[in-house]
Q: What sequence folds into this?
């Protein structure tokens, strides 16, 4: 399956939206990912994760580790498809921890994320793996949004989709200049519904 098809699956469940969005940074973007919308469809999640699993077939892996919340479902699905153990890390008093599981010294681990933008947040999960004596082989993710000029500090071994989504200062936004699509403020469910309506016409 190609990138295009994976994007089509994401679009079909509104995990990938196209339009005109105000990001929390104040910049404008023509697209937005909300990966929780993919994981509410187990069949579609499995379909997308099969692209990732295919790339890992020949890799010697013991454990898939998903940071809560975003990584839990994708770690589980990947573990299922690879026939490996799947666990998750979570915040305890705001510190990423291995609260309910253990990693044996020398176990080979991959991190499963939903979206990787800078890769910096995965460093905490890597620390947890290494503190337990595990070996962190790298990151897998549904959507790789890293930019070539700012690669992830932990290598991304496999992803279902690579997306380079530009964002703009409001005064330089070409979508504003075109004046056709209203600017959608993210974070409000109602606004997201509106955005979908405006996309679907
Ligand atoms: Zn704009």
A:
């Amino acid at each position: 399956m190609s990138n295009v098809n994976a994007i089509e699956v994401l679009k079909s469940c509104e995990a990938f939206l196209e339009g005109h969005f105000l990001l929390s940074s104040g910049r404008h973007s023509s697209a937005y990912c909300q990966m929780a919308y993919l994981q509410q469809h187990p069949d579609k999640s499995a379909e997308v994760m099969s692209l990732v699993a295919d790339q890992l077939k020949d890799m010697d892996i013991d454990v898939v580790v998903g940071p809560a919340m975003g990584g839990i479902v994708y770690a589980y699905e990947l573990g299922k498809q690879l026939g490996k153990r799947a666990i998750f890390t979570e915040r305890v008093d705001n510190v990423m921890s291995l609260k309910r599981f253990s990693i044996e010294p020398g176990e080979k681990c991959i991190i499963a994320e939903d979206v990787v933008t800078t890769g910096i947040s995965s460093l905490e999960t890597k620390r947890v793996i290494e503190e337990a004596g595990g070996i962190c082989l790298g990151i897998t993710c549904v959507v790789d949004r890293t930019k070539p000029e700012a690669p992830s500090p932990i290598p991304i071994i496999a992803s279902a989709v690579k997306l380079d989504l530009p964002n703009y200062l409001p005064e330089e936004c070409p979508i504003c200049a075109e004046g056709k699509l209203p600017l959608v403020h993210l974070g409000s469910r109602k606004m997201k519904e509106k955005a979908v309506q405006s996309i679907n016409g």
About this structure: Helices lie at 3-12, 36-39, 42-56, 72-82, 122-131, 174-178, 189-200. The first strand starts at residue 16 and ends at 22. The chain has one domain: 3-200. The CA atoms of residues 29 and 166 lie 6 Å apart.
